[in-house]
Amino acid sequence: MTRYNYWTAASLGASGIALSTLVPGGPIETRSFAHINPFTLGAFNTFLTTLCIGSLLLVYFVWKAERWAIMAAVCFGLSYLGVYGLDLAQIFPVSPDAMSPALLIIEILGAIAAVPLTLLALTALRFPSQENWVTAPSAHGQASLFSPTPTMATIGVLLIGLGIIVFATRSAMGI
User: Fold this and answer.
1) pTM of the model
2) Which residue in 55, 95, 120, 147 has the fewest CB atoms around it within 10 Å?
């Protein structure tokens, strides 16, 4: 593993944690979005939840220098920049309520942090960890894709994500 993988993984984890603190209905994101179509709001919350959970899940694979995960980290970094940028520029989602000072600070810091995350991931792609990218994976000793542990973990993550999406959408709508 290169130091770029380490810093990319750390930045990805920190970005995921920072965005997860902004769930509508929580202590920081208290604005109302009741005027936005529920399906639009639900789709947006699905994207944000996928971004948060996906970031945290990608940390391990970026740490292990998996090329696909590092490419995903580039996309996630750009997504963070886009999400924060759209909200800070008051493009989407727009609320009649003002941003709290804590929300404003976290969003500004999140947007700033998205730039090094993206650059670190791009650099990690440029300087690969040779031992993980050159050798072909061996099927010996690996768990089956449909073994109980990964399947149950996937179901658990999906259920947690669904719960977050429902909670965030209901909270943002004031329900």
Assistant:
1) 0.84
2) 147
